[in-house]
Amino acid sequence: MKPKKNKEIISHDNFVRGRFKEDISEITADFTASLDIDKRLADFDIDGSIAHLCALEKAGIATKKEKKDIEKALLKIKDEIKSGELTLNKKYEDIHINIEKRLTELLPSAGPKLHTGRSRNDQISVDFRLYVKNAAKNIAGALLDLRTELAASAAGNIKTIIPGYTHFQHAQPVSLAHHLSAYYEMFTRDFKRLISAYEAADVLTLGSGALAGVDFDIDRVMEAEILGFGKVSRNSMDGVSDRDFALEFNFALSMTALHLSRFCEELIIWNSFEFGFIKLKDEFTTGSSIMPQKKNPDVLELIRGKTGGVISNLLSLFIMMKSLPLAYNRDMQEDKKPVMESADAVYNSLSIFKEIIKTLEFNKENMSKGLKNDSIYATDMATYFVKKGIPFRKSHEIVGRIVGYAENTGKKLSKLSLKEYKSISDVADEDIFNIFNPESSVNSKKTTGGTAFKEIKKALKEYEKEIKNDKQFLSSFK
Ligand code: ARG
Asked: Domain tally for the chain?
């Protein structure tokens, strides 16, 4: 197959070809350019350049006037990129060179000073760290919004009792609030993981140079302060080649996607004709081009579908990194696409999913139908016999026989006569019929974290405090 020709590219005009006799070939230029991806880093690149500029001034490399002029020009370039006035060009390879080219155009004598004491290796590291910090903060915010919606929905559904499942079989009655709170817990762990990925990225690596550090007196602490980094890297070789933060971020995103996917799967099932537990708002569903009656849960399916991509992106990063010797290698250019793709997928999924949760209608009648399947109270019946002094293993066996008897005679457990119960265990009494009650089943659970209303209310109170704290915590982020 012939390589695709890109008319835009003649060769790389990227400041770095002084030592070459020949021009870079068109195909190499096209193959190595990263502008399509790293153009999204423009703002971070300019912020990083301004911090570096301040350090250059402090080190006596840029005069006060040069610093002022370059900063002004960089801010102008930021605006030009935002408005589309400046056309970024692939022939300049990447975002760094595009910005610097424009800078030299605006300031032919001062502009070329900016790259003193800097390499694209530490430059891209800082840009990417700023990107990850920003994205982690935004996604943590979206997670917090979802947690808020879930806690609200749980608070309104404490007394809604549904069949709880294990092995996708009726297991025991649980409160719907308890079910929703389980997801709240998952998304709370995801929130923490994102914060920890943010912290992994929160290290200034500028000043690492290509790998060995730089020859000028660059005040790295000052740079960190300007850019809002909490730490300064301690080893320049690690500084330019560390991508742990990207992996940790992508892992956090994978976990969030996984949790979203499980939840979507459940909602898709709940939305089916057979279950009919929920009604999705029309605005989040689509029709079929052939079957006029269809109202499909496509949004939920797509969120579930995107999870594969997010997890694969994590694997891509692992595989890209696993054999790289120190320090920077060009392979690392491949790190941005998977991370950005995952961040976009998870952010967009969270944003729309939050709206779905907010507007979800529960069909309580359908939800309670399964509670009329008496076998869901079998565990409560075993507890009943335990309370009458029978060891659990024995009582489990008695109830097993009762369930088997009911099944063979085609009767419901609650419709067996006391005589029939007594024929299997004479410990059974009139009060055995009290167990067929969802509310008392749920509230008989005594442990912390169980489904009893009292426990759920306690948990919801904690969630309320936690959400408030996390909101405050997040708003303190730079
Ligand atoms: N585009 C590169 C990346 O994303 C930037 C660093 C390039 N460094 C170099 N030595 N060519 O990793």
From this structure: 3
